[in-house]
Amino acid sequence: MSFLKKLLKSKNKMLLVAGLGCVVLFGMYLLKPQSEPKVSVVMPVYNRADLVERAINTVLLQTFQDFEFVIVDDGSTDKTPDILKKYAQKDSRIRIVTNPKNCGVACARNRGNDVAKGKYIVVMDSDDVIFPKMIETEYNYMETHPETVMVYGQKSILKQSGKNRRLRIYPRMDILRTNTPWNVGNMFRRDFVQKHNIRYDETLIAAEDYDFWAQIIMKGGQISVLNDYFVAIRIHSSNSKEYYDRMKKNSYAVADKILDSFGVPRNIQDNICQVARYFKYLPQSYFSSQEVAGYERFACGELKKNPPDVSIIISTYNYADYLPQTIESVLKSTHSSFEMIIVDDGSTDNTMAVLEKYKEQDDRIKVISQSNQGLSVARNNALQFAQGRYVWFVDSDDWIEPTAIAQIVEKGDKYGLDLISFYTRYVDSDSQPLPSDAWNELPVMLHQTDKVYTLSDIDEKTLSLYPTVSGKNVYRRDFLNDKGIRFPSYMYFEDDVFFLHTIFAGARIGTLTDVLYAKRLHQKQITQNRAKYFSSTVRLPSIIFARLLPLVETTERVKILVRYYIKWAIASYAQFTQQEKESNLIYLKELLAWVESMAIDDFLNSERMMLLRTIQQNTPQFKAPMRFY
């Protein structure tokens, strides 16, 4: 102040101007904002007096020195505060933030991030170590890759003996299912996190870091991984089993959240191979096509023989004349990842000779021989051996189109489907086209090929028109196994039961409006001989009722189906010849007996009366059972 007074009293104008200039420049220097550090290292600490000094030293010894070191003391009660104070006095880059009481690691990390000033923030733990070139390498990467929001390197485990054990290198996409970045040594852009209000979830005791990375991903932030090993993570034997169980549970929940954000269907999220294949068809730019292809190899077992995409199951009985065309249509497929499981159901013609010839030609063909037990038993037996991700039950007198398997696999993987349905065409016994009818096509309501349907989307009319024939539908094998779905044994029209069980079990359904299957109509088929197989027709209502009832909360839809199949049985019986009616009357009476057993619910009263009238018309002496309710 005395210098300023002398300067103002001075008569030397030049000296006065020069002096005032110096004062102004000095004031401007004092008022000028100090340059911010390029990097902020944020480290929470709680009662780590035994390990914190080593962690601090590994930060101070970095080759990159333009950083601030924000240490959040989360209410330590040991000598940790004294150690931190000692380091802060020696190095002005160290800033101590003190929580009056312990608020948890997520809370402490948030406090540190809130006061950080660097362009980038590096995550640090108080018991781990980072190698000298870590910050320099990650900083240079972030500066040259502006699209990257977070970068991390490889980790190793620091054993209590002091030796390191390297973790395996994860593909970047593995963050979809597990916390591969872990926590320590990760660098992220502070402005991105602030802009999107990304914070650690303070309600999580474990996996709070994984949740933090998930928020970056869901906001569209790119996360990159380096192949360099920069971090040694200390694993403590003091961590309880309860902590690890909670960390595992929280990690699964976060992984679900990430996969949900990409639209991955919940029913395939537990299968990393299915998830990898889903991303092949996802129109997005978060992961490159090379990464997706590499992750598929990793997730599906690059060094293992992958299971086939589709199991084609063919059951045959005395169809040696048609069988070669069926087999060759599969072999001509543009998609080669399939297996054919062909069950000879006790044929008496030269079927086995045909099968042996093809089996020698292609190792994808597997042959099972059994005594004649019917289509359902044959298919169920083949399902026990099937390895394909999808299962297609192809009849031995039909054939598939060359691109069918490729289209079905792409459709199923893209939408995570349990059931894929498509158009068919009908041919006669000579493979000549037959006129189109309603059963060639799917109901109009199902023509949205980019939509995933479930039972709630399908009304009763659509369900009654849905082509249930197995050849017109492809099923996901894991779904069938998980839900215990099998064909009812020793009966015909088994397709209806199998299909409805799948629908009511909660299947995700997708459709294709391309013609992928050729269905042959001839007189040997079951559907052309309803009188011969009427005993199976009358069994359908009771079997469907028993299968579907446990799957629903309200029974109305099941009751509607049961009524439909009873009326179908009565309508089929009405079309029989007199001789056929007489031979099948006993089965109609069996159906009446089952309806009588259900009558206590009163939902089949009208069907009971229809059955009584039909039976009485054909046997006038028939007396209806007395009802005691």
Content of β-strand? 15-25%
Largest sheet: 9 strands, mixed
Q: Kindly report the average pLDDT value.
A: 86
Counting DSSP H or I runs of 4 or more residues, the number of helices is 22
Shape: elongated
User: Into which percent range does the helicity of residues fall?
Assistant: 40-55%
C-alpha Rg (nearest Å): 36 Å
Low-confidence region ranges? 28-33
- End-to-end separation in angstroms reads 113 Å
Q: How many DSSP-defined strands?
A: 17
Helix and strand composition category = alpha/beta
Topology:
Elements: H1 2-9, H2 13-31, E1 39-45, H3 52-60, E2 67-74, H4 80-90, E3 94-99, H5 105-115, E4 120-123, E5 129-130, H6 134-144, E6 148-158, E7 164-166, E8 187-189, H7 190-195, H8 208-218, E9 222-234, H9 241-261, H10 272-280, H11 289-300, E10 310-316, H12 323-331, E11 338-345, H13 351-361, E12 365-370, H14 375-385, E13 390-393, E14 399-400, H15 404-415, E15 419-427, H16 460-465, E16 473-476, H17 477-483, H18 494-504, E17 509-520, H19 534-548, H20 556-574, H21 578-598, H22 605-618
Helix pairs in contact: 8-9, 10-11, 18-19, 19-20, 19-21, 20-21, 20-22, 21-22
Task: From the structure above, extract its key features.
single chain; 629 residues; 9-stranded mixed beta sheet; 8-stranded mixed beta sheet
Describe this structure in words.
There is one protein chain. The chain has 629 residues and is of the alpha/beta class. The protein has 22 helices and 17 strands. The strands form two sheets. Strands 1, 2, 3, 4, 5, 6, 7, 8 and 9 form a nine-stranded mixed β-sheet that branches. Strands 12-11-10-13-16-15-17-14 form an eight-stranded mixed β-sheet, sandwiched between helices. Helix 8 packs parallel to helix 9 (241-261). The radius of gyration is 36 Å and the shape is elongated.
